[in-house]
Structures are given as structure tokens and as C-alpha cells.
Structure prediction request, 247 residues.
Amino acid sequence: MRISIVSLDLKRPLRLIFPTRLIKTKFVWKMIGKKSKDSDFDFKPMYQVAKRGYKDLKRFIKNNGHFNLVEIIDQEGNVVIIRI
Amino acid sequence: MKETFGQRFAKLRKAKNLRQEDIADKIGISPQAVSKWENDISLPDISLLSELSDIFSVSLDDLLGKESTRTTMVTEVSKRKNINLMMLKVSITSNEGDKVNVNLPLALIKLWIDADGKMPEINGKKLDGIDLKQILTLVEQGVIGELVTIDSGDGDHIVITVE
Prediction:
């Protein structure tokens, strides 16, 4: 997963790389559960969905190629793109 | 033959009666750079695309020549794509000029529905009134293209498309 940020406040575009496979790790969901403000948040079902979702996502990318999950362009011209 | 970026760019510029120098002045680059784009030698930086689309008064899709399924249509059974390889696109344009596009593979939407998930909040817009199950049923029946269009009271425009 690549996160690109183009902002007028930045001298050059900021590019971050986040390993997509982390979404299928229990550790990440446990962390999200701990940080969540929602006291009812149960990480287990989310982890199960993410694990299956990662498999489907891989199949999708194999067939269709990588794609932009989120594109945000604000009125001032700042751009954020999350590409998977 | 498919129109190149340079050809499309030159066409849009001429339609607006602008010279290469005018574009260069507006976005603070050299006229040579614009010339290179039109001759397909190089492409504009991603940070300039939004500004260019505003200058030409076209969407980013139109500027980049992306053919999208804008109308709603029912596809024949023999021509239907595998639903797991299709994409749900949510496009939000706020009244303040912010644009948010979210592209989600339908395979993930199906999983989300199975887990009793609802349409998430995007850019502060509550979309939980949109029935994902109904959208999926329509797609399974071969309906593709623009499935939901919302013009909210505060001037936001939301479009949900399946391609």
C-alpha cells in the first residue's frame, strides 16, 4: 500500500509505503482494538474479515492490477492517494 | 487508435483558446514543458492535474481520457463479468470543492455485507442509508454503471458507480 501526499506545504511529495499484508495480522487488529474509542470493538471478527479480504484483494490485483483505493483532492490542490 | 494524453491536452487547450504560454504562466512552469506534454515526450506531475482540470473545466477522468461507465445499463448474461473482479466507486464532490474518490472491489463489499457491515462514513458524509445489499443484488442481475446519485441539501454531490 502506497500513500502519496502532495501538499503546497511540502517541498516535495511525501510517499509512504505500508505493507498491505499487515491487515491480515492479528497484532494490528489487537492494536486497533486497544486504541479504539469504541469499548464494544471486538478485533476478532474484524481480523477474520480482513484475513479473507486480503485473499480476495490479492486475487483482484492479480486480475485487474493495482488500483487507487482512495483519492482526495481538496480545494487548495492538496492531494492524498492511497494505492493498493 | 486511442487518443494520447498529448493529443487530448492540445484539443482541450485549443477549445479554451489558450496558448501553451498561457497554460505555463497559469501553473508556473515553462512553455517547453507544456510542449513536451503535447508531443507525448513527458507527462505533467500529479500535483498539477487538479489545476489543469480546473483550467480546462473538465473532470480528472476527462483530462486523463478515462472512459467510465456513466450511464446505467443491464448487461446480457453472456457478457457479464465475474462480480468478484468488479469495482464499486464512490465519488463525492463537496460544495467547497473537495473531491473524494473511493474505489472498492465488490469482492470486499460482499465480505463486508456478510460481516453485517454498513456503508462507512466518507469525508464526513454519513452514507449508512445506502443499502449495499441492494446494490449487490442489482449488480448480480447485470446492472452496471451509475447506480446511486445524491445531490444533498448542502450542495454535495455523491455518485456510486459499478464498473
